[in-house]
Fold this protein.
Amino acid sequence: MEAVERRRAIAQRLAQADGPVSAAALAKAFSVSRQIIVGDVALLRAGGMEIFATPRGYILPGEPAALTRTVACVHSGGEMARELEIMVDQGCQVVDVVVEHPIYGQLAGQLHLSSRYDVQEFIRSVSKNQANLLSDLTGGIHLHTLRCPSEEAFQRVRAALDEAGLLWKG
């Protein structure tokens, strides 16, 4: 398969996927290395295709939810699972995590977590890779972009985070 055909097939596979597709799975499907897939995705992005890299693989942006909101949080790494579970338990998708770095400005990491399963897989990946969290750079203070089904769901998230002591009040 020619490189151009492979990139078209990757775009089609991502468009038809119900969830994230890992570079390893794409590499296996197209009988190429993971690095070739990473390069193909970079070229697709350079060509204008919007592709998000999440901890579980590549996804295309879905239909936007009725409501996008931002919430400010503060906590240690040990409280991350509880924070994320509060958000997804109210039906919200955790789109990303954002910190304000004194040198680099705003840094963001794509998450796209929609369920407790997604949260647990993310926590496992952090642990397995012994990865540092973006919020470690800012003393635990960070933002999350949420896609919520309603304003009421967002307010429930805020109230539950506040009750758990995870809502940053500045």
Notes: Helices lie at 3-16, 23-30, 34-46, 80-89, 116-128, 151-163. The mean pLDDT is 90.
